[in-house]
Structure formats: structure tokens, C-alpha cells
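quick one, 125 residues, struct below
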Amino acid sequence: MDGYEHLDLAHGNGVLLPMARAMTDSFSYKLPANTVRAYQEVLRLGGDLHLMQEALTEIVSDFVDSDLRRTDLEWVPLEGVRWSAETRWPAMWDERVRRASEPEGPGVFVVRAEPERCSPALTIL
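---
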């Protein structure tokens, strides 16, 4: 273990990519052209991966104006989900989601804490 396991991909790319680009600029004249191109492509793909991760996170966290009344949310992680006054929750979830949420803007809320679940916790015998 190198002690950096706690850094996630998004944070790592956000910090490391600018440093890597600066280092590449400083020593690229010493490397064969194909190595420089390959390294630049790796940096570009790393940036693309970071953008894709952000886009996917936003997609799966956006419940604004959604009708979820027939959705089983029992095992769906809701912390960080954005929703609106028009979002329709299953009857058993409506009040719990409201209690666990904070306003983000006019008519938009974010679930800040994970709402309590309907099912009792599993016990191991």
C-alpha cells in the first residue's frame, strides 16, 4: 500500500493531470516523438474519463420532475440525488426523502443524508 488509496479517480485526475502536463512540457524534447504522442494521448484520455465520470454521476443523480411512485427504492443509494417539488416519490418514501433533504435552489432539493430504509437491517447469526 502506498498510502494514496483514499484518492478517488476524479480527484486524482483533477490534481495529477495538470502536474503531468507541466512535467511533459519540461522533458518532452528528450523523448522520441512517438513516445511524446502516446503520453499526450494518455493524458487526453484521462481527462475524457474524468468528464465522463462527472456526466454519468449527474445523470444517475438527477431525479428532478421524475415520477418514481412505482419504483422500488429500497436498495437505491439516494444521498446526493437532486429532486424537485414536482418529483413524485413512492408513498413510503416521500416524507423520509423530504426529511433527509436540503434546498439547493428554488424548488430543487438535494438528499444530504441517506434516508432510513423500510427493511430491517439484516442480522448475521
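The chain has a mean pLDDT of 76.
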